[in-house]
Design goal:
By secondary structure, the protein is α/β, with parallel strands linked by helices. The chain has 13 helices and seven strands. A five-stranded parallel beta sheet has the order 2-1-3-6-7, sandwiched between helices. It has a two-stranded antiparallel ribbon with strand order 4-5.
Length: 336
């Protein structure tokens, strides 16, 4: 009799364990989906613990009515290209879709989303840094809301892959941190984006701090090591061409510009790297494309090419809004 009573007890125990496991799994998934601590699922109930710019910019773009006629594509080097200034110059609605650490792939995927949403702009202003043309065109950010735009008919396997982070301990811990910050208070973000995609909240550093930022960035991410060779990346060049094909098919024009580097950076690059040769190859490629696409291009890699000044940089590679306006004056001279 005792043995007969043990079997139902074991079965009940296993059933209870399975039920608790399913409940715990569902609770974890629900928590991570609602809190969205990394900003990749789009719940927008809480401020993510990290700023992911691709999803944020796509969301802002899709909320813009009417759809922008002019869109700026770039990396953080184009964060300060002011859409309101573009609108004042052209009388057309503009949006800044520049994203952090962008590769050329980001530009192409944004353009494909514009096409998928039926809101393709009539003009794209695209920043192509020499360093981007030398490197594979991969994004630095995790796949996010853009996947829903690019692959609306995803298979179940695709969906599981896109949402696999919901099951991880890392993301669950991040969700708990977000909820904790909601209770205790969080510091103000370093920056945010306005409805037109323009960056907000960055202060103006003192000349001394700006000079130090230039030195620090030249010693780290923006040293001459970015230009150790002059061979353009076949992947990035292929993606630029796909972008140009898409724009031509949609009846859109393209302005490509090579964004500037701080004068100290250019001096270093010209002396200790293959920057000049790489830049020349990129300009030759753009000149070739300009004969078959509705494309204009500008080289602003040096401040003298657009009337800029040394103080118009936050570090070795990020121009200020004033510098961007000088470049826009040249690029948009025939767009009024």
């Amino acid at each position: 009799m005792a043995a007969g009573h043990e079997r139902p007890s074991a079965v009940s125990f296993l059933r209870g364990l399975a039920a608790r496991s399913v409940f715990l799994l569902a609770a974890t998934v629900g928590l991570n989906l609602l809190v969205d601590p990394l900003g990749v699922y789009g719940s927008r109930l809480f401020e993510p613990i990290v700023l992911r710019t691709r999803g944020a910019k796509l969301y802002l773009y899709e909320q813009t009515r009417p759809a922008p006629a002019i869109v700026i594509l770039g990396s953080s080097r184009s964060f300060s290209v002011d859409p309101q200034y573009v609108e004042a110059k052209t009388s057309r609605k503009a949006f800044n879709a520049a994203v952090g650490g962008a590769g050329i792939r980001d530009y192409l995927e944004f353009a494909r989303c514009f096409a998928a949403r039926g809101s393709f702009p009539s003009l794209l202003i695209v920043a192509v840094g020499v360093e981007q043309a030398l490197s594979p065109g991969r994004t630095f950010e995790r796949n996010d809301l853009m996947e829903d735009c690019l692959h609306p008919q995803s298979t179940l396997s695709d969906r599981v892959q896109a949402y696999r982070g919901l099951f991880t301990l890392e993301e669950t811990w991040a969700s708990l941190r977000v909820l904790g910050l909601e209770v205790t208070g969080r510091p103000a973000p370093a920056y945010s984006f306005g409805r037109d995609g323009m960056i907000r909240g960055l202060g103006t550093p003192s000349p001394r701090l700006r000079d130090q930022d230039v030195s620090d960035s030249l010693a780290a991410a923006w040293g001459p090591g970015n230009f150790t060779h002059d061979r353009l990346s076949p992947e990035s060049i292929g993606q630029i061409r796909q972008l140009l094909d898409l724009c031509r098919d949609r009846g859109a024009r393209v302005i490509v510009y090579l964004p500037p580097y701080h004068p100290r950076a250019v001096t270093l690059y010209l002396r200790e790297s293959q920057f000049a040769s790489a830049r020349s190859h990129l300009l030759e490629q753009l000149a070739s494309w300009a004969t078959e696409y509705p494309l204009r291009f500008y080289d602003f890699t040096e401040v003298g090419l657009f009337g800029g000044r040394e103080e118009m940089f936050d570090d070795a590679s990020h121009p200020t809004t004033d510098a961007d306006r000088l470049m826009l004056d040249i690029m948009l001279a025939d767009e009024a």
